[in-house]
Amino acid sequence: MERGTTPQLKQLVEEEQKPIPDITLRQLKHSDVEDLMKWKSDDRVMRFTTRQVCTTKDEALDFTERFIMPHPWFRAICIEDRPVGSLAIGPAPGDEKHRAWIGYSLAYDYWGRGIATAAVKKAVAIIFKEWPHLERIEAVADVENRRSQRVLEKAGFQREAVLRKFIVIKDKVRDVVMYSFLSTDPLVE
Amino acid sequence: MTWASDPRVTRFQRRGPYATASDALRYITEHILPHPWYRAICVDNGCPVGSISVNPAPDDRCRASVGYRLAYNCWGRGIATAALREAAARVFEEWPHLKRLEAVADVENPASQRVLEKAGFQREGVLRKYIMLKGERRDMVMFSLLATDPRT
After folding, report:
1. In Å, how far is B65's CA from the nearest CA of chain A?
2. Which of A48, A89, A158, B33 is the most buried (most CB within 10 A)?
3. Are B124 and A135 a contacting pair at CB < 8 A?
């Protein structure tokens, strides 16, 4: 989203009333690269992520090989089996084996329909079953990324703190909001 | 060994107290010597009474975390606070890419929280089940000091 068009709460709430399409999570295939490009090449989608934009199909294929394929838990967010976004869960760096982080991206045309929220809810339920040692999933959202903060809140994450100058996004050091979901927190339907 | 063998000091640390000098020696060889930034805290006659260490974040050069430990008989004298202030000033100078120094203190460790506040760190919030301490997942208070924050 461009600056100055940050959605008002009213707009977000209106969007949240619309029915959510059925979404599935599955492994990404090499043949999905065209669909992957739809959001990986879009500045509006990549604006608040730490990942680089992919401007060519080769870059997307390279990203698929180097990052996606070996990743411990990377899923395409699909509608009718077509990827419209992605979601990844990774173990926290360092010794804290009980922790993992979650990150996600969604093609711009699919924003505002509850899809990312539905994907996060599904992923949280799955990962606590698949990784029984996991006790805390955390996510950070840029302080200006109100949409992503709403996704996490609706998916049942608890807002914990604003961490100042926490990460570098597109060469700028940014403040982020930290959220967490514990294995003991209630799952949201 | 003075502080590393004392359970009052290691209560809020990941590892337990050392029983023997050879345990401590192994720790020095395997952990302290190769560490990116590890300093002894010394007072008056130059005798170490504790230590302070700064760990760069593995995935983001803009931040690092600081930890410290002090012999029990030196608590309550502002030593840890002074050590933190000094360490912060030095690492911000030595690592110009560093923008954020962070520290976590157990929610049940108000003494350490006070040290961080007096050293000019800003309390940011409680991170639930953040750190594993002796097999238990603990809630921690997160603090930060930015390179741009006024120094106390």
Report:
1. 11
2. A89
3. no
